[in-house]
Write a structure and sequence with these properties.
heterodimer, A: alpha+beta, 2 domains, 8-stranded mixed beta sheet, 4-stranded antiparallel beta sheet, globular, B: 2 domains, 3-stranded antiparallel beta sheet, 8 strands
Amino acid sequence: MAGNKKIGRKDLVKLLEKWSQGFTVFAPSRENGEVLMREWDGKDSGFLEWYRNSTQPPKDVVLPPMEKMFAFHKEKDGYRIEEPPPQQQQRRRLLFGIRPCDARALTIVDLPFKEGYEDPYYLARRQGTLLVGLSCTRPYDSCFCTSVGGGPSDASGVDVLLTGTGDGYLAEAATPAGGELLDSAGLEDASPADEAGAAEAKKAALAGITRKIDSEGLKDRLLSCFEDREFWEKAAAKCLSCGVCTFFCPTCYCFDINDEMVGEQGARFKSWDSCAFSVYTQMPVENPRLEKWRRVRQKVCHKFEFYPMNFGVMGCVGCGRCIRLCPVNWDITRVLESLPPAAES
Amino acid sequence: MADIDIEQKLRQEARGLLEQGKVDRILGYEAGSLKFTTTPLVTADKDDTERLVVNPFVVNNLSAFLTGMEGKTGIVAKGCDSRSIVSLMQDRKVARENLVILGIPCPGLIDVRKVEVLLGKERDELEDISREGDKVTVTAAGKKTELPLAKVLFDNCLACDMPTPEEYDVLLGEPQSPVADPAASRAGIEELEAMSPEQRWEFWKGEFSRCTRCYACRNACPACFCQRCFVEETDPQWVLPVPRWQDNLIFQLIRTIHVAGRCTDCGNCERACPAHIPLRSLSKKMYDMVDELFHYRAGMDRNPEPLLTAYEASEAED
């Protein structure tokens, strides 16, 4: 892998144009007050002026809110599945400007979709997507990435990390694919001044993360208060049981499968689901999580106890969306802070 | 009376209610974990009442939590919230004797998103927002900007029919008559009314394409008290639980019709929507139609039968 490169601020549009020849380029876009990762309009890089992070995490690019898995139709002796939609997407995608937390989140979502079970729908999109990340410069007051293993310029989930240097960006390749992307872009090598500028910016962003939690031993604390109904009832009291924190979470991946029949013609859909909904666990004769506190407990334990147990990593990247967007300001960091200490084993 | 005095009085009242065993819990507001936010405080602990706050950011309609709560609740209620409580009483979802209503007169709530747009800054970049009379002073980057209150109140507050609760046990503070701007409150709806049906269809198609079916609107709505929502029925399946814009739109239209005569225009649905879909353009339109056709405004009066359970021969049939 060659050394770091430099991208001049005014050269960025040319670079995006160049990448657009080989990829469908996604970039931050503002629609009705929401910031979304959408196909780049090909015009300018004006989004850099206002972009902090997207309202909806970019996971929707690889795990869309809904997708048609296949169509089927009714025949005399049963149902016949029609050709499934092509699994290999036609063009590779490049996500420009994904934040380090959201890129890292995709590596966390990858785990259930490729370990043990391989989800062809997810993997086709994921494997055809390159992530050009952008170090944070203005973290939100709700961000807490540094408490859960990440950071505003963490490169662990991206292919390329860009960090502002004042007059442009320092481009660091984090994967071989990212290295190839940079090598083929015909960019100048970064100077020591660019390196120094980027290091300064990284330091400043790190200082901008003010929300902190002690994530040491969280798994054990959760394990010992699993049966503490009083704690969970209190923690859950103000939750509305809506899907905001899960649907807008970059690591939540639960989905539901539904069939739709119109006459003889049917289709099977996969769509996001949420453990906050009581119907999520509705069984024919019972519902193990009918009470709200059980659902809240599940959500917290899944991220901070079960995920570490199953995959060795927390199911949270500290992007803070669940705190920013919650209609009642149910704050996961407050709940984690209020956990009783782990019982002596 | 200033917010701070109301707050002190509220804390005393709430503590007293818990100490005397008059309620099992207090349902109020405490400071949120982010600037210019509050969060519901649900507590049975008298010491927690010290955390109760009253300020221009007490945006949640807490009556949405009442359905399903057992025992007695001391609830902090603004005018619009008290109307929702009355409506829940009419529908027999809440018994008056199980409530102690701590009424707070409301001079309107500040919509931080409007402040963000006017200042060109995001919430966490603002240092202070303070309300005095009909002016709001915002401090950002050390600079103070004065804004007329009417420019930063929530749209629904600008057409508030009941700033001071009329159904209460204790009223904290003097009655309020906030800044009103009914035209501004309806501006979004009027834009839609001026469109052709095709344009309106396109508008809502765009809006509901962003809906993820998180159901924050429904769960934040006190009038949405069904134990099982029609969207969760599987036999028959009225709408797919898949966030296709058509299904999303149908969900919201049916929800709007289901709460007709119960919706008090509290604005909780629109505030809860993480996708910023202008849901109040549907609910307020319905509210006005109910008023026009049936001369009925939900929760203004506890005596009449709920709108949808009563019928008069003189009512319009079309």
